[in-house]
Hints:
Helix content is 82%, strand content 0%. The longest helix is centred in the first third of the chain and has 21 residues, at 64-84. It has 17 helices and no strands.
Amino acid sequence: xxTSLDDTDCWAxxxxxxxxxxxxxxxxxxxxxxxxxxxxxxxxxxxxxxxNEISRMQxxxxxxxxxxxxSEQSVIVARAMVIANPSTEAKRDLSISLERLADxxxxxxxxxxxxxxxxxxxxxxxxxxxANLQSTEAQRDLSFALNKLGDLAxxxxxxxxxxxxxxxxxxxRRVLAIADPASAIAKRDLSxxxxxxxxxxxxxxxxxVARNAFEENLEIRxxxxxxxxxxxxxxxxxTFALNNLGDVAMMALDYKSARKAYQEGLKIxxxxxASDPESVQAQKDLLVSKQKIGLxxxxxxxxxxxxxxxxxxxxxxxxxxxxxxARADHEVDLAVSYNWLGHATGDVQHSAAADAIEERxxxxxxxxxxxxxxxxxARNYVRxx
Length: 385
């Protein structure tokens, strides 16, 4: 355990919180470790980082009010740090805290606050770049801030702003990747920007643009996976690229191509889950792949196959909920999957189970607007005749 060496070390508790968060059924322990980090913090910077960690853990658990409080306190501490010593590090820490607050505000659908803090963070990132044009870290940080702005713009259907933000981020990341062609991080960042632009193009119904972006993304991620055959992250990234191409094919009603892409991704995720059975995220990723194939079968009219995959998804998500009841996102996913299984089987008991989960989460104030929308969209799907 990280704290066995010194349980008065804030950074050890933060490390432990992140470690616990990756383990099955350890969300509560992760949250306690983050709070302990704050309790033993000896400096404003340690308090700032501990508050960010508390916010992240509370957000994972669906406790939006607690996440908001921690994020706001983190910003207050970070502002004080900048006033006391307007160093590059202090300004960077403030921008990170602002972005954490933006994450919470977006979950709460507080778009006004989200835009305000993202704009402030972006302004800080631009100042830091201007102060050190040779800094790769500053350029990379700016690209992340631009992506935050783009993500917010997408959420309010401001596709023009999103396009400009994502495009600027992409251009920065192309330059960084060219400057350091051996850097796997630079290539991964570039692929992430291509992914965002592809997803935006899909929303704008520009399928050719989306496909081109996703194909370049897939090429990069295949190369990274081949170069780093022992990297679980590289393999997982490859599955996201495959799923993106599958999603484009689904929108074009090309179920054969979609199924092929999803099945390749499923094979990789099955191997990843088998190699790390205690990883909640690996199990969750596997279930996402199964659901994508299940929906492909559902929408193409293959109900028997759809039932098989969607039943496996529901069973798997129920297990995740039982292992870690503090994770509201697992319950939201379970409600969504119950609705999809109801469409495949015609059994109203599945939709009733979804309704019960939604009501329970809403009554406990643990249902985000995004979660409610996901459940509603699955419930309102019109089954093909």
